[in-house]
Design brief:
The protein is of the alpha/beta class. The protein has helices at residues 20-28, 47-53, 60-66, 79-83, 100-109, 129-147, 177-188, 200-209, 221-228, 251-255, 305-326, 328-331, 335-338, 351-356, and strands at 2-5, 32-36, 56-58, 69-71, 89-92, 112-115, 169-173, 192-197, 215-218, 233-236, 262-265, 286-289, 292-295, 341-344, 347-348. It has an eight-stranded mixed sheet, sandwiched between helices. The protein has a seven-stranded mixed sheet with strand order 9-8-7-10-11-13-12, sandwiched between helices. It is globular and about 65 Å long. The protein starts with a strand and ends with a helix.
């Protein structure tokens, strides 16, 4: 199979979809790998290293023109949309429930689109999304600490406090992978942590995992409103696989928060879990609304591109290899990979995407 890996052009995105070791594995088995010149620059992997691994270096236009499968990190944007071809396979993070214009283009172009974030095991685990969720969760308290600084518009609160001064109150909305990792780092920084979730079973599990060091509260509008009023930091970590994230946090709840408090919406790539969330970039990560600092970067792991690229490659490569070795039809006999199929032959294949866009 002819596999193409373009350089990411989304703002502040420095990850690359395939590392040299992956190229070498594919080439050794007779596949041809095209890498766009400069694709690895963001993590200091030069074109020479890719050539040594067996890749063919080329321009973006050449790559899209010849590759049977395009492997990316983030969704295609701008000129990439025009370069997509009929019957081409696209394998990347897509978040189509929150991107109706992109979905329309994929349907029109007759592209087969497999979304990283909806590849799902029978257990419900999202094996490709999981490491990115871990990274985003661990980043959230770190970036929030900077947002709480006075120079950033924050209230000047130190997450861990100091002897004689109380630490910050941190509220995490969602007890999944993002929430657990955010809680772990926030606790390590000395904060007081509360996790909200709609599942009592999950809350019981979290109570055991953290040995009672975090408060667990059943999520409801009233409970959220009350806790947000005293929170210094709120982390949105809700996820409905493949679907647009519901607005769990209302504009009224945000208005009720303390002046200079911080809201980090990790759910923003699926539309955001607050009515006040608007996508931002690493170059301009925050805005202040109703005296609350909002951090809504849509590709948080891109800020730690080296770690994120290695973590992503560990989980994507087996599927890339599977599609290349077996062909699309045979590869999709694997139910885990098949759940990632979002668009095929001009038809939306994923139920959550259909529901989100009322198709």
């Amino acid at each position: 199979m002819r596999i193409g890996v373009p350089k990411e052009i989304k703002a502040d995105e420095h990850r690359v979809a395939l590392l040299p070791w992956g190229v070498a594995e594919l080439v050794a088995r007779g596949h041809v790998v095209y890498i766009e010149k400069g694709a690895g620059k963001g993590i200091n992997i030069g074109d020479r290293v890719y050539r040594k691994a067996g890749a063919t270096m080329c321009s973006k236009r050449e790559l899209y023109g010849i590759a049977e499968m395009i492997v990316k990190v983030k969704e295609p944007i701008g000129e990439e949309l025009d370069l997509l071809r009929d019957h081409q396979i696209l394998f990347a993070f897509l978040h189509l429930a929150a991107e109706p214009a992109l979905l329309a283009t994929l349907l029109k172009k007759n592209v087969t689109a497999i979304a990283f974030e909806t590849v799902q095991a029978d257990s419900g685990l999202l094996p490709i999304l999981a490491p990115m969720s871990e990274i985003a969760g661990r980043m959230a308290p770190q970036v929030a600490g900077a947002c709480l600084l006075k120079k950033s518009g924050g209230c000047g609160m130190l997450l861990g406090g100091v002897p004689g001064v109380s630490p910050a109150n941190v509220v995490i909305v969602g007890g999944g992978i993002v929430g657990v990792n955010a809680a772990r780092i926030a606790l390590g920084m000395g904060a007081l942590v509360t996790i909200f979730d709609v599942s009592l079973e999950k809350l019981r599990h979290l109570d055991q995992v953290f040995s009672g060091r975090v408060q667990t509260v059943l999520s409801s509008p009233r409970n959220l409103r009350d806790r947000l009023e005293t929170a210094h930091l709120v982390i949105g970590a809700a996820l409905v696989p493949g679907a647009k994230t519901p607005h769990i946090i209302t504009a009224e709840m945000i208005r009720g928060m303390q002046r200079g408090s911080v809201f980090v919406d990790v759910s923003i790539d699926q539309g955001g879990c607050s009515e006040t969330s608007l996508p931002t970039t690493h170059s301009k990560p925050t805005y202040i609304l109703d005296d609350v600092v909002h951090y809504c970067v849509t590709n948080m792991p891109g800020g730690v591109a080296l770690t994120a690229t290695h973590a992503l490659s560990n989980v994507t490569f087996p599927y890339i290899f599977q599609i290349a070795a077996d062909g699309l039809d045979w590869a999709l006999q694997d139910r885990i990979l098949a759940r990632g199929l979002n668009v095929h032959q001009g038809v939306v294949m994923h139920d959550a995407v259909k529901a989100a866009l009322s198709l």
